[in-house]
Each structure stands twice: as structure tokens, then as C-alpha cells.
Design a protein that fits this description.
single chain, 575 residues, alpha+beta, Beta-Lactamase, Helix Hairpins, Heat Shock Protein 90, seven-stranded mixed sheet, six-stranded antiparallel sheet, 15 strands, 46% helix, binds adenosine-5'-diphosphate, HisK_dim/P_sf
């Protein structure tokens, strides 16, 4: 029973509950105040009638007694009163209201002899008529009824009907007003609740739409300062976050699917060739040792290509993991020099120039140093004859070389094993170098060194692959103090990159469909890795044309002292 009531109550809508409870409270309040008022009022009115009756009865008794003793005339008593005279034994002698039917007169039960009247001592009695329709308030007082002084009783009664009628009228008026108040109250409560809950219905509708999969729905309408307005604001924030998460998730899944598809596609080609050669061999199609050697060479090349691809894929997967970087101040200069040395080793005959930045204050007085690493004949070229001048105009704080220092290939080993010079030690860039000892501006950035090396290796690899074998390549390090950043640029003089594909080349597996790109057999992941590493270091990468032809890739990193530099991760201490 109790449970079914609770269930039924919980099934009622909030609006109906609030309206119902308000109406119930209003009705109860009105009833209590109405009935209470009526009870008090009736008592008060009856008390008034009672006191008046007492006064009038006493005065009538005195006046009747005086008249009976011949000392005056009987006073006229109001016709509203019923007056009866009883002798000393309680027998009715005379009474008024003779024109009233007998059963409408107050009916005195019991004896009204003098003894009883004396005991009553003027207290008021309640009498009824014979039909029990009307109540009377009566009082019995002794009086002299004969000139000899014989005592009798005067009973004076007044009908309570007028009082009851007044009370009934009051009750009718009160009930009329009460009903009106309850109806108006119910209507107002309903209107108020409906208008207050209107935004909640909006929330309900929006939630239903979201449940159906429309995550673009947002809540609005409610005044921001109301409870519903605040709720809407919080829900909207939550929805935006969920929406963003869903979109991110969908994008990640999509990327993943494309990535896996592209990776499988890339791996399928070399696998098919390896399998093809294996089948040829099994079927005995490869007879001569030259044919077998050729097939083995192809298999080896394909395996190398697959190995490179798998390494790139692993690198990208690691970058996607967004593991915290092992950050430390890194000077870009030694990295540029090492990359140049590596390139020299792998591409003999190329002229590789490293252009270093110098402080602005030495701009006009100092010969700008540059290191040209020319490795073709083993001779040391004259300073003015080495590598071409870098074609791209470097930013403010970097300077093209005009007094190049060159090294032959023979110096490579020495350079590789050299102890880091003072300028190689990562340290905050000096604010003003001493005039006596002009030094290069240090391009010290906060980074993970291996990652920066990987960026330079990928860009250098592309520069060497996409430019003629004898064309020069420049590595330029620059510092932009104003924007608190340092850059390394790889400048080649090859085929260049058309502007329309510059955005695409950083996408995973994107390769220009040129004969050279096909020849180079790249996976299309090199620049995607670059973009990923640069982004994780809060840096930027740009590609522009090299004046005179070719591509210039410039990578910017925040200086180690810059607020936008990535935060150093404190390594966890192992016990
Ligand atoms: P790949 O492994 O094919 O080199 P990358 O992501 O490194 O992949 O490069 C994507 C494409 O961008 C290359 O296929 C090539 O078309 C173009 N590209 C990259 N670097 C250069 C460059 N220095 N000169 C001309 N084209 C370039």
C-alpha cells in the first residue's frame, strides 16, 4: 500500500506535484483560518447576547416586581425576547409570543420551582424548541409576582437563530472567497511553474536530441542568472567538451585507419617484389649466377626500404604517444656542423656550407664566420672560392658568409672527434659579447637533442635527394632575439616545391608524384616526422623557395630563455 502510494507519487510530474502541493497548502490554510475565525466569532457573539440577556432579564425582573407591588408600571420588554412567568412551584402563569406556534417556543425541561431557580443563581441556560430546530439562550431570575410579596420566577429567552444565520452567512461568504483564492492560487502556481519549467523542457528536448546522436545541439533561452541558466551554461560547456572529444576521437580513428591503410599499402609493394623473386627462384626461373645476384640485390633493396619504412612508422608511433620530452638546452650550431659532416660523408662532391649567426653589434666590424665543408678533391679551397653564397636572405640576426672558413674532407675525422668548444656548450645567449672577443650568437633552444638531430637529418636527406648530385646545400643557423627564437634552415638548389603542394608535403605518406620522388623511393613520412617533432617543441616549420631555384626548409624553436620554450621535465629520482 505504502509502496504503491510512493510509486504513484513518483510517477506524477514535478509541475503537477508543485501545483498540487501549493493548492493543498492554500486550501488547508484557508480552512483552518476560516473555521478558527468562525468558532471564535460565534463564541464572542454569544457572549455579547448572553450579557445583554442578563442585563435585560434583571431589569425586567425589577420592573415586574415593582409593578406587582404597585410601585410602578411594567416596563416594555423587546419582542425579541421570550418572557415567561412561573409561580413559586414552577407552574407557568403567563408568557409572551402567544402568536408563535407552541412547538417554536423555548421548551423548559425540568422543574423551575423557586428552590431550583435560587440554585441556578442567574446562570444562563440553553433551551431548545420542541422540534429541536432552534436554540435559545435563557436566564431565570426570581421576582415578586403579587402585592403580598409572593415570589415567582421570570424566564427570559432569546433565540440564537439570528446569530446562527450571521455565522452561516459569514461561512458562505468566506467559502466563496476561499474558493476564489484557491482557484486563482492554483492558476498562478501553474502559470509560474510552467513558465519556470519551460527552459527545463527545452533541456529535456535538447537532451533527447543529443541522445539521438545530434551532438551539435546546445541549450539556450534561460536567463543566465537563474538556476536553469547556470545549469544550461554548465551543460553547454560539458557538451562542447564531449563534442570536441568525440570529434578528436573520430579524427584519430580516421587518421589511424588511413595511416594503417597507407602503411599496409606501402609495405605491400616491396613484399610483393620479394615474394615475386622468391617464387621465380623456386620455379627455377633464375638460372645464371648473375640473375640470382640481381634478384638478391633487388630483395636486399626492398628489405632495406621496408626496414626504413618500419623505422619511420615506429618513430611516428612514438611521437604520437606524446611521451614527455627529455628537454635540455641544445645549441643548434654543433648540430648543424655535425649534419654537414654527415652529409659530406654520404655525398662526396657536394659543397655543404654552415652559416652561423653573429651578434648585431659586430655586424659591421667583424668578418662573418661560416664553415664550408667542401669535400671533393681533398684540397682546401680558397675562402672566396668555396661554396656558393647562400642564396636566401637570412633574418636580421643571421648573416651570410663573406669570409668563409673551409675544411677539406680530410678534416672531417678531426672535426668529428673534436672536443666541444666553449661556444658549443649550451648556455644562455649572452646579452652583449665582449668587444675584444667577438663570438657567434648562441642559438640555444630547449629541446631533446636527438629529436632535433632527427629533424635536421630528415631535411638534409630530402635536400640531398631532391637536388642534383653536384649542387650545393647550405645549413643556416639564425637567432631572432625579438621573437625569442632560433632557427636552422636547410637550403637546397634543386627542383623546389610548388606552392600548391607545400601544405600537403607534411602529411603522412604524401609524396609528389614526380619521377624523382618515385626514384628516391621515400615513404612520404620524413616531413610528417619533422612536423610532429617541431610541434612537440612548440616550434614551427616553413618551406619557401630558394632564390634562384630550390627549396628552403626553415625550422624555428623558442630560445631556451623564452617563456614559450617547452618546460624542462625533471627526471624522476630512482631510490
Ligand atoms: P619522402 O620519404 O618521400 O621524402 P617526405 O615526407 O620527406 O617523404 O617528403 C614528402 C615529399 O615532399 C617528397 O616526396 C617530395 O616530393 C617533397 N619534398 C620534400 N623535400 C623536398 C625538397 N628538398 N625538394 C623538393 N621536394 C621535396
Amino acid at each position: 500500500m505504502h509502496q504503491s502510494l510512493t510509486e504513484r507519487w513518483s510517477r506524477v510530474s514535478l509541475r503537477s506535484k508543485i501545483t498540487g502541493v501549493t493548492v493543498l497548502m492554500l486550501t488547508l490554510g484557508l480552512l483552518v483560518s476560516g473555521i478558527g475565525t468562525m468558532a471564535m466569532l460565534r463564541q464572542y457573539v454569544i457572549q455579547q447576547v448572553d450579557s445583554q440577556l442578563q442585563v435585560d432579564a434583571q431589569s425586567a425582573s425589577n420592573s415586574y416586581s415593582a409593578a406587582a407591588l404597585g410601585q410602578g408600571t411594567t416596563a416594555v420588554v423587546s419582542s425579541d425576547y421570550y418572557v415567561a412567568l412561573y409561580d413559586e412551584h414552577g407552574h407557568l402563569k403567563d408568557h409572551t409570543w402567544r402568536d408563535h406556534p407552541r412547538d417554536e417556543l423555548p421548551h423548559v425541561t425540568g422543574s423551575l420551582d423557586l428552590q431550583t431557580v435560587m440554585e441556578l443563581d442567574g446562570r444562563t441556560m440553553t433551551l431548545e424548541d420542541a422540534a429541536h430546530d432552534t436554540e435559545f439562550l435563557a436566564v431565570a431570575v426570581p421576582l415578586v409576582i403579587s402585592p403580598q410579596g409572593t415570589l415567582g420566577t421570570l424566564v427570559m429567552a432569546v433565540s440564537l437563530k439570528p446569530t446562527e444565520n450571521t455565522m452561516a452567512t459569514y461561512l458562505t461568504i468566506f467559502l466563496g472567497f476561499g474558493l476564489g483564492v484557491v482557484l486563482v492560487g492554483a492558476l498562478l502556481t501553474r502559470l509560474l511553474v510552467t513558465s519556470t519549467f519551460a527552459p527545463l523542457r527545452e533541456v529535456e528536448r535538447t537532451a533527447a536530441a543529443i541522445a539521438d546522436g545530434d551532438f551539435s545541439q546546445r541549450l539556450g533561452g534561460a536567463t543566465p542568472n537563474t538556476e536553469v541558466g547556470r545549469l544550461n551554461r554548465s551543460l553547454n560547456t560539458m557538451l562542447s567538451r564531449i563534442d570536441r572529444l568525440f570529434k578528436d576521437r573520430a579524427r584519430t580513428i580516421d587518421q589511424m585507419r588511413r595511416f594503417v591503410g597507407d602503411a599496409s599499402h606501402e609495405l605491400r609493394t616491396p613484399l610483393v617484389s620479394v615474394r615475386g623473386y622468391a617464387e621465380l627462384y623456386r620455379m627455377g626461373a633464375l638460372q645464371s649466377p648473375e640473375e640470382i645476384a640481381q634478384a638478391m640485390e633487388r630483395i636486399e633493396k626492398e628489405a632495406i626500404r621496408m626496414g626504413g619504412l618500419v623505422e619511420d612508422l615506429l618513430e611516428l608511433a612514438r611521437l604520437d604517444e606524446t611521451k614527455p620530452l627529455a628537454l635540455a638546452p641544445v645549441d643548434l650550431m654543433p648540430l648543424a656542423r655535425d649534419a654537414a659532416l654527415d652529409a659530406m660523408a654520404s655525398s662526396p662532391g657536394r659543397t655543404i656550407t654552415v652559416i652561423t649567426p653573429i651578434p648585431a653589434e659586430f655586424e659591421d666590424t667583424v668578418e662573418r664566420p661560416a664553415i664550408d665543408l667542401a669535400h671533393s678533391t681533398g684540397e682546401v679551397p680558397a675562402a672566396s672560392a668555396t661554396g656558393p653564397k647562400p642564396a636566401e636572405k637570412p633574418p636580421e640576426t643571421s648573416h651570410p658568409t663573406n669570409g668563409s672558413v673551409s675544411f677539406a674532407g680530410a678534416t672531417l675525422a678531426r672535426l668529428r672527434t673534436r672536443k666541444p668548444r666553449k661556444t658549443d656548450v649550451p648556455a644562455p645567449a649572452p646579452e652583449a659579447a665582449p668587444v675584444s672577443e667577438p663570438a657567434t650568437v648562441q642559438a640555444v633552444v630547449m629541446a631533446e637533442e636527438n629529436k632535433i638531430r632527427q629533424v635536421i637529418t630528415n631535411l638534409m636527406g630530402n635536400a640531398l635527394r631532391f637536388s642534383p648530385a653536384d649542387s650545393p646545400v647550405e645549413l643556416e643557423v639564425a637567432v631572432d632575439r625579438r621573437n625569442q627564437r632560433a632557427s636552422i634552415a636547410i637550403i637546397d638548389h634543386g627542383e623546389g616545391i610548388p606552392p600548391q603542394i607545400r601544405d600537403k608535403i607534411f602529411q603522412r605518406f604524401w609524396r609528389a608524384d614526380t619521377s624523382r620522388a618515385r626514384e628516391t623511393g621515400g615513404s612520404g613520412l620524413g616531413l610528417a616526422i619533422v612536423a610532429s617533432i617541431v610541434a612537440s617543441h612548440n616550434g614551427t616549420v616553413q618551406v619557401v623557395d630558394t632564390p634562384g631555384g630550390g627549396a628552403t626548409f626553415r625550422v624555428w624553436f623558442p630560445l631556451a630563455c623564452s617563456p614559450s620554450a617547452p618546460q624542462r621535465v625533471t627526471p624522476a629520482t630512482t631510490p
